[in-house]
């Protein structure tokens, strides 16, 4: 029969706990790496509607028609089921419109609970560069 000291048992237990944390950290890193490697979706023309989670990347400077004065360049539907990244990729969205990027819940109001990131570029000649609302009239 083996007898173990309390210190030996605590050291063994701590080792098991640390192993479990290391395994979990490895799984988290794997998921993060897989997410980072997911392909981006190219935006090469306006207007553009986003209804799925993902990373959306401009392919160049884009100009919307802005014919009515109320055009939205990029619309992100409030029912999009996950995070969205709009990477302007150093380019410019330009037009005579209402909103460069619109996140609008409509009526009845619907709010998008997922994170939306808009980064790395310029939005010009819009009443609102980025407009986010859960209701009301967009751009007015």
Mean pLDDT: 74
Uncertain spans: 6-36
Kindly report how far apart the N and C termini lie: 82 Å
User: What is the total domain count?
Assistant: 2
Largest sheet: 5 strands, parallel
Structural class: alpha/beta
Helix content: 10-25%
Q: Cα-atom Rg, whole angstroms?
A: 24 Å
Strand coverage percent: 35-45%
Number of strands: 9
What string gives the helices and strands in order?
Answer: HEEEEEEEEE
Q: How would you describe the shape?
A: globular
Helix count, per DSSP?
Answer: 1
Overview of this structure, please?
This protein has one helix at residues 6-37; strands at residues 41-43, 48-50, 54-58, 62-63, 72-76, 84-87, 92-104, 116-119, 122-133. It has 140 residues and is of the alpha/beta class. It has one helix and nine strands, in the order H-E-E-E-E-E-E-E-E-E. The radius of gyration is 24 Å and the shape is globular. The protein starts with 5 loop residues before the first helix and ends in a 7-residue tail after the last strand. The strands form two sheets. Strands 2, 4, 5, 7 and 9 form a five-stranded parallel sheet that branches. The chain has a four-stranded parallel sheet with strand order 1-3-6-8, with no helix packed on it. It has two domains: 1-37; 39-133, no CATH class.
SSE layout and pairing:
Layout: H1 6-37, E1 41-43, E2 48-50, E3 54-58, E4 62-63, E5 72-76, E6 84-87, E7 92-104, E8 116-119, E9 122-133
Parallel strand pairs: 1-3, 2-5, 3-6, 4-7, 5-7, 6-8, 7-9
């Amino acid at each position: 029969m083996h007898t173990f000291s309390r210190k030996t048992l605590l050291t063994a237990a701590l080792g098991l706990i640390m192993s479990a944390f290391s395994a979990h950290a490895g799984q988290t890193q794997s998921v993060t790496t897989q997410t980072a490697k997911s392909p981006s979706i190219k935006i090469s023309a306006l207007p553009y509607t986003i209804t799925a989670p993902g990373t959306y990347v401009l392919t160049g400077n884009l100009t919307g028609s802005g014919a009515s004065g109320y055009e939205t360049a990029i619309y992100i539907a409030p029912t999009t089921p996950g995070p969205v990244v709009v990477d302007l990729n150093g380019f410019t969205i330009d037009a005579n419109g209402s909103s460069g990027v619109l996140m609008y819940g409509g009526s009845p109001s619907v709010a998008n609970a997922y994170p939306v990131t808009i980064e790395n570029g310029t939005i010009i000649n819009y009443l609102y560069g980025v407009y986010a609302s859960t209701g009301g009239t967009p751009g007015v």
